[in-house]
């Protein structure tokens, strides 16, 4: 397997007037330099070199995998704002010097180039204007049905590439950038092999669990659909789609590379990723639960047909995804991008309950997989969000483990403990307005008190849903915000992977009719991702109370996760007569339509049957002295409230309060208005669906 020199990138990350960070992955080590340019379009397009210096940090994560974070600093004056800037990178070793042109990335005749229209270089701008456009989305699974909405964001940028007043300035990816648990059958073995090629060796998994040296596990772990039992019973994960779950760090790295860029897909073709099912089956590459013998003949045939149907559908969807991957790659190269994890970046149900967390920690294999997932998140996502968060000690401990991948000794122990205990994954993006990204996975609070539940005549005590951020976490977030340049009475963006305000209809059905089924032994907690802020009153109220302490003039909450898009407006009045305006915008999924099958049918019926009522009516509620959130009739709030709230679900131009197609949000914020749009891609171009424009109240 001959790896290309450039594995992924460039991806432009943290940008402000003091520095620009660019992420790059290569299969060889290089000394790297960079130049920044100012574009002048009058009277003709020209470039002017800016005086800068370059600092590069490189993490050698494996034999053939080097991750570079390139930071460009101005030498004298701050970097220009609200003006189009371009960049080039120069990669040198003792044999040659390459730049982005050397890889064909600046050739406008090359369909995989990363430049727009007549621009000679990839470009971006640093927004300080009161008008700003921000792309935001989540949930991007390569083998999902439908087109990848990230392609529509690339088209939107291309349409306005020369006009910074209309061009999106930033891209927020809000979770599930990869699906570590849900790996498509046709791609799985290539990922296993590519991971080993990148790192240069396999991890000592049998040293973590001796059963992995025994059959059938020693063989099945390398086969398509052969890991479900291992993941559920050895690692103690609860995902129902873990048949090809990522385990080794190299596998996580391979998945990121294949999701970010098209470079490795030609290699994937050569390695048989797009072979038909019959060829893969004939090669013996598929694991079967039932052996092919006379005792299980009918069961084997049924399983064979299930494998064939799933494989064929996933193969078609993968082909569609990779055909447009160059668009996503171009967008990432031209738009400052900030990323936060959700569960699938590590595994489905990650830290869902305290029992889940304890069970996985007490499993050597489970603890190891989560550590690898977090290390991959940091390497491919977290590092570029705000590089100065991560100390030299942090990076050294990760590199020490990567040097030999031994699960014995101090380096491995420090690697695991560092990643499980790290509490600074949240960050602030230097956008206008400022954006604080919440970590709703590792800052959770778990309430040990039981919750009474009734199903028919059966009355039981049940576990409570977690607080998505505990009190200690909120204090850390507040400290981070206070140390930033943001100040009270300014607009504030909060990125919460899970919406603070979902569609109450869906959440209520889950809460009132589905969630109580846990007392019957049905694991609905893990089956349905029962993790909305609403499901823990203390967590929801903490969110509101901390917002009141921060006192933003207007609060924009951007979210994903739930596989639908919506816009919600809330006005909260506190007993001291101060007010808080919250606008919740949700965009999901970019590429993972999931409202299908019986569950999707039922949920769509619930939404559509009640949507008309929600569009015509406001919702009123208050928090009483006892801390209970109570629904009200209009103007019926009692006098002893802590705060009262009016909620309105906004409609699209088509009259719907939700959109369930693959989409990515485009939020346009101006001084006194805000407009939320959904962008979609249908193979030939971009479509838009607009929500009602909102006039902001006086600050």
Describe this structure as you would to a colleague.
It is globular, with a radius of gyration of 25 Å. Helix content is 31%, strand content 23%. A hairpin with a 2-residue loop joins strand 5 and strand 6. About 3% of the residues have low confidence. It has a domain of 236 residues. With 699 residues, the chain is an alpha+beta fold. The strands form five sheets. It has a nine-stranded mixed beta sheet with strand order 13-14-17-18-20-19-23-21-22, covered by helices on one side. Helix 12 crosses helix 14 and helix 13 crosses helix 14. The chain contains 19 helices and 27 strands. It comes from Aquibacillus rhizosphaerae. This is PhoD-like phosphatase metallophosphatase domain-containing protein. InterPro entries: Metallo-depent_PP-like, PhoD-like_sf.
Summarize the structure.
The protein has 699 residues and is of the alpha+beta class.
Helix content: 25-40%
Derived from helix and strand composition plus strand pairing, the structural class reads alpha+beta
Distance between the termini: 59 Å
What is the gyration radius calculated from CA atoms?
25 Å
Overall average residue pLDDT: 90
Instruction: Please work out how many helical segments DSSP would assign.
Output: 19
Strand order, main sheet: write it out: 13-14-17-18-20-19-23-21-22
Counting DSSP E segments of at least 2 residues, the number of strands comes to 27
User: Poorly predicted ranges (pLDDT <50, ≥5 residues)?
Assistant: 513-530
Largest β sheet strand count, sense and barrel closure: 9 strands, mixed
Label the overall shape: globular
Q: What fraction strand?
A: 15-25%
């Amino acid at each position: 397997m001959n790896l290309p020199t450039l594995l992924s990138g460039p991806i432009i990350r943290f940008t402000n007037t003091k520095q620009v960070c660019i992420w790059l992955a290569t299969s060889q080590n290089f000394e790297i330099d960079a130049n920044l340019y100012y574009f002048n379009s009058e009277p003709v397009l020209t470039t002017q070199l800016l005086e800068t210096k370059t600092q590069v940090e490189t993490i050698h994560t494996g034999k053939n995998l080097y991750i570079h974070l390139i930071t460009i600093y101005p030498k004298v004056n701050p970097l220009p704002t609200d003006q189009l800037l371009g960049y080039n990178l120069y990669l040198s070793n003792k044999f040659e010097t390459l730049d982005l042109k050397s890889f064909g990335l600046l050739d406008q005749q090359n369909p995989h180039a990363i430049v727009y229209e007549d621009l000679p270089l990839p470009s971006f701008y640093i927004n300080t204007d009161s008008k700003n456009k921000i792309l935001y989305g989540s949930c991007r699974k390569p083998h999902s049905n439908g087109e990848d909405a990230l392609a529509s964001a690339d088209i939107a940028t291309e349409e306005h590439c020369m006009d910074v007043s209309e061009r999106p300035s930033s891209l927020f990816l809000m979770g599930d950038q990869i699906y570590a648990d849900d790996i498509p059958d046709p791609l799985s073995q290539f990922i296993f092999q590519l991971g080993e090629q990148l790192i240069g060796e396999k991890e000592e998994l049998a040293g973590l669990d001796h059963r992995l040296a025994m059959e059938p596990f020693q063989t099945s772990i390398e086969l398509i659909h052969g890991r479900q039992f291992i993941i559920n019973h050895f690692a103690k994960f609860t995902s129902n789609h873990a048949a090809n779950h990522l385990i080794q760090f190299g596998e996580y790295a391979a998945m990121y590379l294949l999701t970010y860029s098209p470079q490795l897909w030609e290699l994937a073709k050569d390695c048989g990723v797009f072979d038909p099912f019959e060829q893969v089956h004939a090669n013996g590459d598929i694991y079967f639960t039932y052996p092919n013998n006379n005792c299980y003949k009918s069961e084997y045939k049924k399983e064979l047909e299930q494998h064939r149907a799933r494989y064929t559908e996933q193969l078609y969807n993968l082909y569609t995804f990779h055909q447009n991957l160059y668009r996503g790659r171009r967008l990432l190269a031209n738009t400052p991008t900030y990323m936060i994890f959700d569960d699938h970046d590590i595994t489905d149900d990650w830290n869902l309950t305290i029992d889940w967390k304890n069970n996985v920690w007490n499993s050597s294999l489970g603890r190891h997989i989560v550590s690898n997932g977090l290390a991959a998140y940091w390497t491919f996502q977290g590092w570029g969000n705000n590089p100065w968060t991560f100390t030299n000690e942090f990076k050294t401990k990760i590199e020490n483990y990567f040097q030999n991948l031994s699960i014995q000794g101090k380096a491995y122990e420090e690697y695991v403990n560092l990643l499980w205990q790290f509490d600074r994954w949240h960050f602030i993006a230097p956008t206008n307005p400022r954006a604080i990204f919440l970590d709703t996975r590792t800052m959770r609070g778990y309430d040990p008190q039981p919750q009474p539940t009734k199903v028919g005549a059966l009355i039981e005590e049940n576990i409570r849903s977690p607080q998505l951020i505990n009190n200690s976490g909120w204090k850390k977030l507040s400290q981070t915000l206070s140390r930033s340049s943001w100040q009270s009475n300014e607009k504030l963006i909060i990125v919460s992977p899970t919406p603070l305000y979902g569609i109450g209809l869906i959440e209520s059905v889950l809460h009132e009719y589905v969630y109580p089924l846990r007392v019957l032994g049905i694991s609905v907690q893990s089956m349905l991702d029962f993790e909305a802020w609403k499901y823990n009153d203390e967590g929801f109220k903490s969110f509101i109370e901390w917002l009141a302490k921060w006192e933003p003039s207007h609060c924009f909450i951007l979210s994903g996760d739930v596989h639908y898009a919506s816009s919600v407006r809330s006005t909260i009045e506190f007993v001291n007569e101060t007010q808080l305006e919250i606008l919740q915008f949700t965009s999901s999924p970019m590429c993972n339509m999931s409202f299908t099958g019986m569950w999707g049918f039922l949920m769509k019926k619930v939404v559509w049957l009640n949507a008309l009522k929600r569009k015509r009516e406001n919702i009123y509620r208050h928090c009483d002295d006892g801390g209970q959130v109570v629904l009200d009739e209009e103007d019926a709030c009692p006098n002893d409230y802590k705060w009262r709230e009016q909620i309105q679900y906004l409609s699209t131009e088509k009259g719907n309060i939700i959109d369930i197609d693959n989409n990515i949000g485009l939020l346009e914020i101006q001084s006194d208005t805000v407009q939320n749009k959904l962008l979609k891609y249908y193979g030939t171009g971009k479509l838009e669906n607009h929500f009602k424009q909102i006039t902001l109240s006086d600050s």
